[in-house]
Amino acid sequence: MYQVGCSKVDITSYVYNKAMMGYAVPFHVVKGVETPIYVRAIAIKHPKSNTNFIMVNAEICFYSIALQDAIIKKLQTEYPELGYTHDNVMLTAQHTHSAPGGYSHYILYNLAIPGFQPKVFEGYLNGTVEAIVAANQKLEEAQLSYTTGEFSPSKKVAYNRSLAAYNANPEVKQKILKRDHHLAIDRTMKLLRFDRPDGTPIASWNWFGVHTTSVNNDYNKICSDNKGYASYFMEQEVRKESGNADFISIFAQDTAGDVSPNYQWNNKNGFSRGKHEEDDYKSAKYTGKLQYQKAMELFHQAPKSQSINGTIDCELIFADMSKVEADVEFTNGKKGVRTSGAATGASLLTGASDRPPAPAVPTFFIGIASKTASNVVQLYEKSLFKLFSNRKEREEVNQKYKGHYPKAIVLETGRGKILGTYKLKDLILPGAVDPTIKRLKAVGKNGFARRTPWMPNILPLQVCIIGSIAILGIPAEVTTIAGQRLQKSVLKVLKHRGVQHIMLATYCNGYSGYITTPEEYDLQMYEGGHTIYGRNTLPAYQTRFKELAIEMLKAPADRQIDKQLKPDIFEEHEIWYGED
Questions:
Q1: Antiparallel, parallel or unpaired: β 159-160 and 89-93
Q2: Total structural domains within the chain
Q3: Calculated CA dihedral for residues 210, 315, 62, 271, nearest 10 degrees
Q4: Could you tell me if 154 and 286 lie in one domain?
Q5: DSSP calls for 521-546
Q6: Between 537-551 and 480-494, two packed helices, what is the crossing angle to 10 degrees?
Q7: Are 529 and 344 within 8 A, CB to CB?
Q8: Could you report the per-residue pLDDT of 428-471, keeping only the tens digit for each?
Q9: Which of these three, 456, 475, 507, is where a domain ends?
């Protein structure tokens, strides 16, 4: 039997009139609070083997690498007796786009805010540590059970927003029509239930992939969105039903990369909307209620399903995802296939199919202009630049365009270049055109463009095993088919130690854009443009997770895992605090 404790802490900390994280538009600023935002934690201990694990989920867009580092350091400094390290702390987020931003050190994530916001960072840091400590103070004997179930096709809970990319995958034998785009997703919810020995529920954690974007960027209040409402509905019902006033329910993400809750295009507002076109909060409640209802069904089914037993085993590595040579198992036998330095494409600037970047911006113009400029830069770098460059520079240029093809590269976010230049202050467009242009010029003027990378290259990859369940901590958004491939490749290894189920904990311990399949990447839709390590990003993740899984077949003392590589943690002078 395990020991389990859980907690829930309010982390609604914000700076008025500073932007929220997710939509990356300057006008999406905090003007008030529609719902509080919480962090929930479930501590699990296996007394016999003296192994432990903490699962954390926050109602924010994602945990940044800086936050992860600060949380682990605070736990080890102030609460060393808990025995927490990077390995056994899993920090996930339900990915609402309506929570305060400014808690990353990377410039790209702070442009819209603008700048790093210490108040928000400290609020999330202290709230998370408080939740972890509180969960450990409530440890009690518990049993775990697991089950799954599919949403009925009639339930309007989620839709594939990049259907053409989805259909490009060989796994899709019969192409899905637009009218059936709700079938082009993983409609399965997976649920883990935690109970006292007498059957009283302590907590539940479920995985289902759908963007927490029912509330669009023309709303300016903090909101936990559809998954936050789902947690509220379920907690209220189970607390009343069971008599346990401390019961918590976590609605976590799965393969949400190409999955949206919005399916009705609204000409008036220029967005896809959910069930209630004129009220996004009602739409969020509607989608949340569908998830809550399915979770309740599984919750009552779980004790009669599969019991989870066995030790806890956790490992985390930091991997440089910009320099991975993919295993031939994941490249159709092709050797020498590798990733490239972080870069985003023109399709990122035009926004997702269900949501352009801003209603007033002509996205077709952005797309044409950025692709044209990218092609000009590429022509220069592959011709004139080569005449005056050394061998190393020529190799870097060749790998960049080979690895990212057919992406029209606009931002080299691994090094802070835009359209081939560091000279952001000399951008042709004036700052008066758009606040983001103004901020880019300020970043360039003050030397931040070259001081640090704008997005991470070194990322945390985590595997935590509880009996027959393995949870993969992935610092990115994963599309439906990409997730299926990753699950299969890791299960192929871990089944040899009794693992039967692979869960994908996305938006975990950090953030680095999307993971698409190579076939999806080739179409360069929004998700492909934001797959930052190039066409072979998914094979690279499969490679690194396979390597980690193989080591976890061995006894801990026999594992050969590189723990030396660490992520970028910026010094005070390297952090951009904004100019506004």
A1: unpaired
A2: 2
A3: -30
A4: yes
A5: HHHT-HHHHTBTT-TTHHHHHHHHHH
A6: 20
A7: yes
A8: 666 666 788 888 888 888 888 788 889 999 999 999 999 999 99
A9: 456
The answer to the question of residue 571 being in a domain is no
Alpha-carbon distance values, 495 to 53, 144, 202, 326, 330 (Å)? 21, 20, 29, 22, 19
Is residue 51 classed as helix, strand or coil in its secondary structure? strand
| pLDDT per position as a tens digit, 534-576 | 999 999 999 999 999 999 999 999 999 999 999 989 999 999 9
Decide: pTM greater than 0.90.
yes
Q: Would you state the structure tokens that stand for residue 217, as one six-digit string?
A: 């960027």
Note whether residue 570 is domain-resident: no
- Same domain, residue pair 37 and 125: yes
Give 71's Cβ-side CA count (13 Å radius): 32
Q: Are 158 and 260 in contact (CB under 8 A)?
A: yes
Shared domain for 204 and 279, answered yes or no, is yes
* Domain, as residue range, for 157: 2-318+457-558
Q: Do 178 and 239 reside in the same domain of the chain?
A: yes
Q: What is the pLDDT of residue 358?
A: 53
Residue-level length of the chain: 580
Digit-coded pLDDT (tens) for 74-123? 999 999 999 999 999 999 999 999 999 999 999 999 999 999 999 999 99
Residue 437 belongs to a domain: yes
Residue 435 lies in a domain: yes
User: Are 156 and 296 contained in the same domain?
Assistant: yes
